[in-house]
Amino acid sequence: SHGAMAQALASRGYVAATISYRLSGEAKFPAQIHDCKAAVRFLRAHADEYGINADHIGAIGLSAGGHLTALLATSGGVADLEGNGGSPGSSSVIQAAVPMGAQTHLLSERTREVSAAEPKGAIWQQFLGGTQEECPAVYKAASPLAHLDQGDPPCWFIAGEHDDASTHADVFRKQMKQYGISSGLTVLKDAPHGFIGKQVWFDQMVEKADQFLK
Fold first, then answer.
1. Dist CA 168 CA 170 (whole Å)
2. Helix 64-74 with 31-45: angle, nearest 10 deg
3. Are 142 and 105 in contact (CB under 8 A)?
4. Which residues pair with 159 in a beta bridge?
5. Which pLDDT tens digits describe the chain residue by residue (214 residues)?
6. With contact defined as beta carbons under 8 Å apart, do 87 and 50 qualify?
7. Which of 14, 38, 131, 168 has CA 20 to 30 A from 208's CA?
């Protein structure tokens, strides 16, 4: 699905790349964001080779990828989250983000409850090493909201109408507004969490992402 997303954006004039990151079964956090940042550094370091404008790099992703997209947006320069992969000397800072179906507030009461509930909480526990109550410092480090500051780039959130309201990033967007950073939200009518699997929602997503990134 992300390959199709990259092709759709490329057809509108962007240089698009799909990246890979280690899943929680392979490595715990922060390996995932280390891999994302390594990819950004690699692309920036090879900008001339690939025809990339190194001053205008954005990220887009859904679900776990949406969370990492938001974290990329807010954690530029956070030493513990940078890792040492990719191209040393190049920046991992991005200039725009489209987090979709994304969790942005990992210290929320909802996350506390979900991380401790079975069986759903097992995903969180494998990713972050335990429940929120057991590992509050890790959950804070992984929370995009915890790193948000005035220097962060604009973010546009996309969510399915039938997804949990936490994907609307209300607290995150309110904080962005206070910092004077542009943000917004598109809710796709009738869509579930994994909305990019259906053409009508996929097309709406690409159109909105294109408008925002332009």
1. 5
2. 60
3. no
4. 187
5. 799 999 999 999 999 999 999 999 999 999 999 999 999 999 999 999 999 999 999 999 999 999 999 999 999 999 999 999 889 899 999 999 999 999 999 999 999 999 999 999 999 999 999 999 999 999 999 999 999 999 999 999 999 999 999 999 999 999 999 999 999 999 999 999 999 999 999 999 999 999 999 9
6. no
7. 38
